[in-house]
Structures are given as C-alpha cells and as structure tokens.
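Reference record
================
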Amino acid sequence: MAKIPSSEITDKRFYLNRRAFIASALAAAGASAIVNPELHAQQPAAHGRRLATTKSALSGSDTPNTWEQLTTYNNFYEFGTSKSDPALNARGFKPKEPWTITIEGECAKRGTLTLEDVLKGQTLEDRIYRHRCVEGWSMVIPWTGFPLAALIKRCEPTSRAAFVEFTTLLDRRQMPGQGTDVLQWPYVEGLRMDEAMHPLTILAVGLYGETLPNQNGAPLRLVVPWKYGFKGIKSIVKVRFLEKQPVSSWQIAWPQAYGFYANVNPAVAHPRHTQAVEARLPSLFQRTKTLPFNGYGDQVASLYAGMDLQRNY
C-alpha cells in the first residue's frame, strides 16, 4: 500500500489554527459550549518528526474533528473528571522512556516489552473512526496505530486465554486524578479474545499522524470503535491473558451503568439519560440517532450472535 502523509486527512493549517476552530465552532449551534478560553491546542512534538504511516482500508470517510477539539475535550480521569482537566493537568506528564508493557497470564511469551519492541516491524496506519461516549456526545478521530491482533499473536496466548485485560499506569505524582476515589486505581479494562483480535481493534500511538498527546492516552492506548469510549484504556502498562472475564474499573464503580461489553446499543439507556441520540461535537444541539454498534454493525454484529444485548450491555 502506498504511503501517504497523514496531514492529507485534514489541512494542518486548519486543525492547528485556534481562530479557525472558534469561528467554525460558533457557526454550529451550541459549539461555544466546548471552548475553554484557558486552553490552547497542544502543538505536535517539537522534534519535527512525523510518524510514517499508510492509510488503512478500514478507515472511515467521516470528516474528522479538529486537532484542538480532540486535545482539549477529553475523558481521562487520571487527570481529572472535567472535560478540560486532561489538557490542563497532563501538560507535565512525562511518559517513562523506554515505556514498558508487562505481558502476563495465559500465554507462552510472558515478560516485559518496550514500546519500541512492540512497534518493531509494525506498519502504522491512519484510521478515521467514529467514537461515542455514554455522556451523549461523539467525535470523529483520525488515529494512528496498528492492530491489537499483531501484539496478541506475538505473545502466543494459550488455548485457555479467552479474555485480554489491560492496565493503565499508576503514578499518583504525575496523575493527580489517581489521588481521588472516583474510581478504583489503576484503571483496568478488558476484551473478549475475538473482540481483541478483530481487525477494527487497534493500539493507537498517534493522532493526526503525530505522536499521541498526553491527554489522549500517551504513549499507547486501546481503540475499539464500536464500543463506548470508556473501553479505550490509556497509557497501557500491562496486558494479561485470562481464562475468565476480568472486572473492569467502571464495572466496579457503577455496574448498573457500565457493563463489560459496552457495545453501543441505543435501546439500552444509561441510568441518567437516553442513549438513543447523540450530539456530534462541536455542536451540542444538532442531535442525530445513535446507530447500533456505533455504525459498525456490519463488521462486528456477528461477534454477538445469540447474546442478549439488553443484559450484556
């Protein structure tokens, strides 16, 4: 596949231009609600290098949100619960170099890998994915990453490995949100093995072809586009292969609202609000119907054939 610059997704002069963002946001109903005047778009890394990427055949055709929207309106509770907290509080976060990922559980290749080891031989792909959050909003994000399946195959899971569990870095000094009791730390998430092996599931290391910003989950995060955003665990430091289903952080915190599967299902309401409609940011008032599996049903619905998706939410 021919290599193309990631910047072709959207004109870089636009997505890094704050005035252009504000002008376009104000033109959409309710857009000003997500503009925090204290925030400025985090610029790409100063080293001047871009990630070498190819455009994935699995990439969508939606128009991506801007760099500023994607880096100033985030869910990353390790840095605070407000949408603007990650951009403010993650500025001083310095991911350890080399970043290491511990491999445990039901696999032949246990041990520790550096991020450089993980990326060695991988072709990084640009993938434009729709994302839906339980709060009722959605974005379109141009991720840069590689299939999670590639890492799983390298670990050689045994026949007993039915699930994959992921754990976020625990560092209360750098992650002030971990000093609160809003969740049980460190953050833990999981997937069934067939979900993890699906070609849509990726590990992301970049955004718009640039190295992943801190507030978006640097340096390594999970992306599962047919599930609600809380499944996209960030700053991953451990991968564990399990025979039994793991218990995720949000299941512990509020099991009535956050099930293990977290598949986008408009028919299952959050205890506090409907999931049948969503607002595509930057507009908070232009609402559309939420699609089952976030619009990826043709690719993933077969994974859940015969399951009760009202109970397995």
